Amino acid sequence: MFPDSPASTAASGSADDRPTTENPIVGIIMGSKSDLKIMSAAADILRQFGVPYEITLVSPHRTPHRMVEYAESARKRGLRVLIAGGGGAAHLPGMVAAFTNLPVIGVPINSTLSIQGLDSILSMIQMPTGTPVATVGLDNAANAAVLATQMLAIGNARLADSLEKYRNTLKDRVMRTIEELRK
Ligand code: RP5
User: Fold this and answer.
1) Measured by CB atoms within 10 angstroms of the end CB, which terminus of the chain is less buried, N or C?
2) Which CATH number fits the domain that encloses residue 68?
3) CA-wise closest residue to 47 among 22, 66, 70
4) pLDDT per position as a tens digit, 47-101
5) Whose CA is nearest to atom 2 of ligand 1?
6) CA-proximal residue: ligand 1, atom 12 (nearest)
7) Residue 17 within any structural domain of the chain
């Protein structure tokens, strides 16, 4: 998709059939399998940027001990950014942030249609001072992956270059539409 789609990690397959690339530096986690259809977009973006990732389920309510272990071991295992998705009372990003100093990006998921995901958004953005969760828009796992890539690009010229090319593809798309509208 991007002009220089790097092929250093999983070159094909969906997030479902490629749960982990080699030496992951981004951990994508979510509370339930029902979140995967949203969260797989983060894996798609990371693959396109050539950022190695792992993707798995970590439920704050159903597997709380696993959540603690995952968060506490994340840095030691080489992860540098975590992307955590959850719907409803979305405690996963906030609780994971409490157990690690790695940056945590939260993806609120609209799984409780009656209140349209507002519960999830509020669970993530209203964090106490000192334990932030960088929250992206509702269901926008792709933006979480772009933000994770931007964080990693601070010390990585290849990623910074890929991000610039990505931005240029977005700009080109707008310019093409402007041209089409002129006709
Ligand atoms: C949360 O509850 C999950 O993140 C999911 O969005 C929501 C519903 O989970 P399921 O009942 O579909 O497993 O923990």
Assistant:
1) C
2) 3.40.50.1970
3) 22
4) 999 999 999 999 999 999 999 999 999 999 999 999 999 999 899 999 999 999 9
5) 87
6) 34
7) no
